[in-house]
Amino acid sequence: MSLPFLSDSQAVFLAPMAGITDAPMRELVSSFGATAVVSEMVSSEALIRNSQKTYRRLQNGQNNIIHIIQLMGSNPQHMAESALINEQIGADIIDINMGCPARKIVSNNSGAALMKDEKLAVEIAEAVVKATKLPVTVKMRLGWDEKNLIYVNLAKKFEEVGVQMLTIHCRTRNQMYSGKADWTVINALKDTIKIPYLCNGDIKSVEDADIAIKQSMADGVMIGRGSLGRPWFLKQVMEFLKYHEIQTKTPTIEDQYKIIMRHFQSTLDFYGKYHGLRVFRKHFCWYSSGLSGSSNFRETINNAEDIDVIKECVSKFYENNSLVK
Question: Known catalytic residue: 199?
Answer without folding.
Answer: no
